[in-house]
Amino acid sequence: MRLHPPAPSRLATSALLLTGALALTSCAAASSAEETADSEIVTFALDWAPNTNHIGLYVADELGYFADAGVEVDILPYGSAAASQLVAAGEADFGIGGQATVQLGRTAGLDVTSVFAVTQKDVGRLVTDEDISGPAELDGGVFGGFGSPLYTATAQTVLRGDGGTGEFEEVVLDTGAYEALHQGRIDFTLSVATWENIQAELDGHPYTSFRYQDYGVPEQQSIGVISSDAYLDAHPGTAEAFTRALQRGYAYAAEHPDEAADLLIEANPDSLGGAEELVHRSARMLADDGYLLADGRAVGEIDPRLWDEFGEFLLDGGFLVDEAGERVTDAPDWSRYHRDLLS
Predict the structure, then answer these.
(1) Contact 342, 298 (CB under 8 A)
(2) Residue 117: which residues within 8 A CB-CB, separation 6 or more?
(3) How many domains does the chain have?
(4) What is the pLDDT of residue 176?
(5) Same structural domain, 211 and 138
(6) Averaged in consecutive runs of 10 residues, what is the pLDDT profile of the chain (343 residues)?
(7) Is the domain of 211 the same as that of 225?
(8) Are the CB atoms for 85 and 112 separated by under 8 Å?
(9) What is the helix (H) or strand (E) element at residue 160, kind and residue range?
């Protein structure tokens, strides 16, 4: 695997990263995959600096699973363009992209489709530094947002699900939301339980945390791997070989989280070399708490029921728009938004 220099560090989030992506609705460029004497090169776009969301990718490379499958993975670090942009434009063959990213982006005309579910359930949480018993107590407070209407609606749904009004002031702070929360400049924000919440504990100020699904937000497979119809149609054999090798990597991480954490750190010493405890605790949480592996589903398997239920939430909330920017009022056929390359 050819690893480009790491992107500037940032806590991984489940951000949808669609603002710029919706502009890239033109025809995808030709695939960047090219044959070498012994392997097919596959490009993979990260969604941010390397973290445990990507653990199976690095494990599969370090343990030779990609080599066994006849592919060489060229990892593209996160830059100014979202992974969904790069995949839809044909500038990456695969990338990190969650369920909601695909449901929103494909409806709006992006050539993105899900091929692998990294997490079998939502990693997102509503968090605050305040000692409160329920989200409704945050009514009237200041929400540190990330510029996505879906995030705002998620926060509103959680507050209302606890009996609150869901009314609050919002300021868009992106990654600055976490510093602002610790400084008391905002009252609550959204985070990732498997990374930011652990970091807060390690820093000595653990969050008061509320799971979205306890307050009316449907479950979703929030972290995943995406590709494009253009690439999958042109390279079906390589796509299947890559995805199966990736599954082996995440299956190893589910069974051997500490060893997988070491492999992730060894592959990214500059960005993760000083975060050993965070990486190990995150890897164990992903493995032990049912994120990587759920009862009745194989590692990476996409659950159509969750796509239907979360899709209804997006439809009812008015978040789905078509290629012309018009609101979608009839549910799309969600089965066309993902492909099974593992059967």
Answers:
(1) yes
(2) 99, 221, 223, 224, 300, 301, 302, 303
(3) 2
(4) 86
(5) yes
(6) 33 38 38 52 96 98 98 93 96 97 97 98 98 98 94 97 98 89 96 97 96 98 98 98 98 98 98 97 98 95 98 97 97 98 94
(7) no
(8) no
(9) helix 149-161
Q: Which amino acid is at 171?
A: V
| Residue that finishes a domain, picked among 181, 215, 249 | 215
Within a domain: residue 343? Answer: no
One-letter amino acid at 95 equals G
Q: What is the pLDDT of residue 319?
A: 96
pLDDT at 39: 83
User: Chain-centre distance of CA 205, in angstroms?
Assistant: 25
Looking at 184, 215, 246, the residue that finishes a domain is 215
Query: In this structure, which amino acid lies at residue 11?
Result: L
- Look at residue 189 in the predicted model and tell me its pLDDT: 98
Tell me which amino acid residue 28 is: A
What CATH number corresponds to the domain at position 141? 3.40.190.10
Predicted TM-score (pTM) of this structure: 0.88
Give CA–CA dist 127/196, Å, rounded: 10
Listed residue (87, 99, 95, 77) closest to 221, CA to CA: 99
58 class by beta-carbon count within 10 Å (0-12 exposed, 13-18 middle, 19+ buried): buried
Helix 55-62 and helix 236-255: axis angle, to 10°?
100
- The reported pLDDT for the residue numbered 175 is 73
Tell me what pLDDT residue 38 has: 65
Residue 327 DSSP code: B
Nearest partner of 249 among 261, 260, 238, 241, judged by Cα = 260
Cα–Cα distance measured from residue 25 to residue 201, given in angstroms and rounded to the nearest whole number: 42
Q: Residue 279: what pLDDT? A: 98
Name which of 260, 287, 294 is nearest 56 in CA terms: 260
Please check whether residues 143 and 28 belong to one and the same domain: no
Check whether residue 90 and residue 164 sit in a common domain: no
**What pLDDT was estimated at residue 33?**
37
Is residue 125 within 8 A of residue 210, CB to CB? The reply is yes
116/159 same-domain check: no
